[in-house]
Amino acid sequence: MTRFDNQTVLVTGGSGGQGASHVRAFHAEGANVVVGDIDVERGAALATELGTRACFTRLDVTDETSWSAAVEAAEETFGGLHVLVNNAGVQNPPAPIEHTEQATWTRILDINLTGTFLGMKVAAPALRRAAGGAIVNIASTMGVGGTAYYAPYVASKWAVRGLTRTAALELGRDGIRVNTIHPGVIATSFITEPAAGATAAIADYFSPEPFAIPRLGQPTDVTQLLLFLASAEASFITGSEYVVDGGLLLGPALQAEPA
Q: Which domains, from first to last, does the chain contain?
């Protein structure tokens, strides 16, 4: 028996770099998986690749009606919803606050923050009908400190922290746990390709060399923690935050001494 037999997991942004890693891992652990994504071609292809116990639903996380349809698809296809992973997110092109367009600010918060809020709002009754479950919100190390030129993204991820803790208090007695993961620099297109409107990728000017674990993170580094937090193994954990960053927030590490 695997950890998620007879459970259904909805992952937003489910066909992206981290999202696809999460979807594949939950599926391998026995879960029914619902790939929620605005990219129809890529999302449908992933669900088809997985075959049995997988389906795709087009999900615009900024639209409550779209959320309702996704949760309904999970319940109608697999009989319930047990885990929600709010993974969908976008980055703003780097710019100082005084040169950040309001439209950019609104778009980033709509997807990263309002999308997470709507997901929890719509999914909570379904999780309650399933006699409890777990919500895991994917935030960022940028939601723990400040980062110049990324005000919309930083603000959205800081807000997700407070939203998560509030939800944990509201839903705990219903058997629904809510936690947050804060990935550092993970090697996906989110990092290796420029954000919309940007001319350079974050990876172009970031080096992990000074830090305790001197490499970029991999999607599986986040996925393995996610599986734990969504499982019964974490039944006494809620309202908590987990950083997966190779020591980035700690600052530069001592260099290894010669053997």
A: 8-184+218-243 (3.40.50.720)
